[in-house]
Design goal:
Layout (H helix, E strand, L loop, with lengths): L2 H29 L32 H20 L4 H21 L2 H26 L2 H22 L3 H21 L2 H41 L5 H21 L3 H17 L28 H10 L7 H4 L23 H4 L5 E7 L2 E9 L5 E9 L4 E7 L2 E9 L5 E6 L6 E6 L5 E7 L2 E9 L5 E7 L2 E9 L5 E7 L2 E9 L5 E7 L2 E2 L1 E6 L5 E7 L2 E9 L5 E7 L2 E9 L5 E7 L2 E9 L5
Antiparallel strand pairs: 1-2, 2-3, 3-4, 4-5, 5-6, 6-7, 7-8, 8-9, 9-10, 10-11, 11-12, 12-13, 13-14, 14-15, 14-16, 16-17, 17-18, 18-19, 19-20, 20-21, 21-22
């Protein structure tokens, strides 16, 4: 036989053998009675057991911080897309994702973080509903809104760059598109388009006719104020009249809120000058060039804005309870309280003696014991009323507020105290329109130096102030009883101090932005005491914690938990030395009984 034939025979024999074995096995299975127990397998024929597998532990759910961070990113994406006037379908999808993210954070978080998530969820839901309403108004309405908003944004940009003519043209195009939106939309979208059209028409008029004059008047007034201290009285009066004339011309060309702004600036100049307005045109050569002599001087009308700024001072009621930092060296350089000026000797300044006057000079009404001086200039004591509703009661010297006097704004705000040549500076009592009240040193109408501020919220601050805010050394007491006594930097607790929380806990040491940071001591209302390192208000670094029950831990901390090498002492003298993990004793450590050493 050939070699190939032998191989073929062997293969056939093997296949036959396999078939016979399979046939025999099937026959044995068929012969097995139903219900009989399966015969035991031999060790050789028993199947190998499946390898033991350990399923990985389920992933831990995301933390509140992780969920909040994801929600904030979703928020940013939605707001950015909306600012870019992207299609409504894109915006709705982004807001849906943001709403879902904030809902998950609200379910996971607690306390302030939960409140933050719920507020953002509510805000985004409202925004989403408004977008859905826009979508339901139809594609034509949506396109008109989007195109009008885009044109309006281009107009705003041109206006900001002082391209007045181009801005006016763009505003008019935007107004036309808003008008088309009025025709295309219904319901609230139509109402919104009407309002936008009206405002855009005003903006277009102001860009073309008001803004150039407003810009000119503002530039001239600023340069006049900078030079006022170096001008002779007659020249100063003339420059003031020119500036007021510019503002009155501007007012006549403006619409909307710009009318009030221009009018307020004109009235401010009239109050500074103390004489009625006489239309005075700028010399052709002068245009809006700066006066020759420039010496900085602040004008009293600016103090209206200054006092309004100071009125807005309100240190966040929760900031010191939650925030803080690295030590800031003391002491702070705080402007000293200005000395109270002596009342002017009006008798010596005026000859002849004052007499009762009741006169009207332009929009200014004088009534009291005054002496007429050069022109319309007066000195004495009495009441001055302006057509705007503002009132001054007190002493005047050369038509300037000087000495003791009270200034009352139409909105109810009051300043009562020292004046120095028309500047509210010295010591005063200020009642702000928002209900805040201040008593102490002032410079240009703002709290500056040492004083007491009582906020309408019930908070109280006593100490050093700078430009109307706590700065230097002072004590701030919140309405809920929380109190910080220490260093302040521009209304933020910063440096060293004692911080007593509303729950009775007392921290002493350095703070940054109102939060314990650095080496300090925290005594809990429960009687427990922690001394050591703080990071962002929590024990972190090396420190010791003493329980009122006598137990004590000395060692490493991380984010307020025992983490790292440390020693735990029991009250009975036993102790455990070793590694701590997440506030618990780890595997690497030793228990030492009292007396075993």
């Amino acid at each position: 036989m050939s070699s190939a034939a032998v191989k073929t025979s062997i293969a056939a024999l093997g296949l036959a053998l396999i078939l016979s074995v399979c046939t025999l096995a099937r026959a044995q299975e068929a012969a097995q009675p139903v219900g009989d127990a399966e015969p035991p397998l031999s060790a050789a024929s028993a199947p190998m057991p499946a390898p033991m597998t350990t399923s990985p532990p389920p992933p831990s759910p995301p933390s509140c911080s992780q969920l909040s961070g994801h929600a904030m990113k979703s928020d940013l994406a939605a707001v950015t897309a909306q600012s870019q006037n992207q299609p409504l379908s894109n915006l709705l999808a982004l807001y849906d994702a943001s709403i879902q993210a904030w809902r998950a954070a609200a379910e996971r978080c607690e306390g302030r973080a939960k409140e933050r998530a719920e507020h953002n969820l509510l805000d985004n839901q409202k925004q989403r509903d408004a977008l859905a309403e826009r979508q339901s108004a139809g594609a034509e309405c949506e396109v008109a809104h989007r195109d009008a908003a885009s044109l309006q944004e281009l107009a705003h940009q041109a206006f900001g760059e002082r391209r007045w003519e181009q801005a006016g043209a763009l505003y008019r195009k935007s107004a036309s598109m808003w008008d088309f939106a009025v025709e295309s939309c219904t319901g609230s979208q139509q109402e919104l388009a009407v309002k936008r059209r009206e405002q855009t028409e005003i903006d277009g008029h102001n860009a073309e006719f008001c803004a150039p004059l407003f810009d000119q008047a503002r530039e001239f007034t600023q340069k006049f104020r900078n030079a006022a201290a170096g001008l002779a009285l007659a020249e100063k009066q003339q420059q003031s009249q020119m500036a007021e004339t510019l503002w009155r011309k501007t007012q006549a060309q403006c619409k909307g809120g710009a009318v009030d702004l221009a009018g307020n600036n004109a009235q401010a100049l009239a109050r500074e000058r103390g004489t009625p307005w006489v239309a005075t045109e700028l010399p052709q050569s002068a245009s809006v060039q700066a006066p020759a002599r420039v010496v900085g001087v602040a004008a009293v009308p600016q103090t209206t804005a200054a006092l309004a700024t100071a009125a807005a001072v309100n240190v966040a009621a929760g900031s010191a309870a939650k925030t803080a930092a690295t030590p800031v060296p003391a002491p702070k350089n705080v402007p000293a309280a200005p000395t109270t000026p002596a009342a002017p000797d009006l008798t010596a300044a005026a000859a002849p003696a004052p007499k009762e006057l009741d006169v009207q000079a332009g929009d200014t009404h004088y009534r009291g014991q005054f002496v007429r001086e050069e022109g319309q200039v007066v000195s004495g004591t009495g009441r001055v009323e302006w057509a705007s509703g503002e009132v001054y009661v007190g002493q005047l010297l050369h038509s300037q507020r000087h000495g003791q006097g009270e200034f009352i704004w139409p909105n109810g705000q009051r300043y009562k105290g020292d004046w120095v040549m028309d500047h509210p500076t010295g010591h005063a009592s200020v009642h702000f329109v928002n209900g805040n009240q201040y008593e102490g040193a002032v410079v240009e109408g703002q709290p500056q130096g040492s004083g007491l501020m009582k906020y309408a919220s019930g908070d109280v601050y006593q100490g050093e102030m700078d430009h109307g805010v706590p700065h230097g050394r002072g004590v701030y007491t919140w309405a809920n009883g929380q109190r910080f006594d220490g260093d302040w930097v521009h209304e933020v607790p910063q440096g060293r101090g004692a911080l007593r929380f509303a729950n009775g806990n007392l921290y002493e040491g350095p703070v940054v932005a109102g939060v314990p940071q650095g080496k300090g001591r925290l005594q809990f209302a429960s009687g427990d005491i922690y001394e050591g390192d703080f990071t962002q208000g929590k024990p972190e670094g090396q420190g010791s914690y003493l329980w009122k029950t006598g137990e004590k831990y000395v060692g490493a901390w991380k984010a307020g938990l025992k983490q790292g090498q440390g020693t735990f002492h029991w009250a009975n003298g036993d102790r455990w030395e070793g590694e701590f993990v997440n506030d618990e004793r780890g595997e690497d450590g030793v228990l030492i009984r009292k007396g075993d050493e």
